[in-house]
Amino acid sequence: MLIKANNISVVRGNKKVLENINLAIDSKDFITILGPNGAGKSMLLKCLLGFFKPDKGEIIKSDNLKISYSPQDFIIDKSIPITALDFIMLNKKIKRDAIINLSKDFFIEDLLKKQLSYLSGGELQKVLITRSLVDNPDLLILDEPTQNLDVSGQLNFYKFLNKIYEERDISILMVSHDLHMVISTTKKVICLSNHICCSGEPSKITQDPEFITLFGHDFANMMSLYKHDFNHTHHTHKGDKNA
Questions:
Q1: How far apart are CA 73 and CA 123, in angstroms?
Q2: What mean pLDDT do residues 69-92 have?
Q3: What pTM does this model have?
């Protein structure tokens, strides 16, 4: 076990933001949290990261656990001229050679030369994750990393993320609204609506009554037919600005 939420609850005013959440993340897990707006997804991440202490329950972490986090919104000051490489190297612990080698592994070496403000949404996400990976974290936490990308950009990003997961000894916890992509890539899905409605493998969870209640019969039926042929049936269009 890397980290565990043990029966945590968070209350804001009279509203239960999170209620009796139990969640364990193990080595080499790839878990995606789904749910409607206001379901408590970002709050759950904040509790796991230690940014917020739950009103009830506890967060238990393994010794020497290294977590890297990519937030939902990252705002760039376009008046500051800085390349992607220089941005990554703002972390003084990171060595230039390590960054370059990592960028070669994931075929994004050319992005390091670009001004940060000139990067597309998909390119920026790749740079942010590369920055997170240089320290070799045990767990990578992503909060809606593709919210500003079009469908082609989402596809390109998930291929990038899947390559990271397959080639590195890392666990990934992600909040996402991209259900069609999630069904294709993640190992486990957790449906959250202030409490955990259901959880399980993507291929099975679409048949869960709680999933159907949350997302509707038509969507559940569509997702149950969605095949795990992610790398074969979809193609990134050349010139896509979000790729």
A1: 14
A2: 83
A3: 0.85
**pLDDT band of 164, cuts 50, 70, 90:** very high
Quick one: CA torsion of 191, 196, 200, 201, rounded to 10 degrees?
20
**Weakest mean pLDDT among 108-112, 134-138, 145-149:** 145-149
> Domain extents for the chain?
3-80+122-233
Residues 10-21, mean pLDDT to the nearest whole number: 94
Contact 28, 166 (CB under 8 A): no
CATH number of 3-80+122-233: 3.40.50.300
Residue whose C-alpha is closest to residue 240's, from 126, 123, 118: 123
DSSP 162: H
- The DSSP secondary structure of 76-101, one letter per residue, reads --TTS--BHHHHHTTSTT--HHHHHH
Nearest to 21 by CA among 212, 197, 213, 209: 197
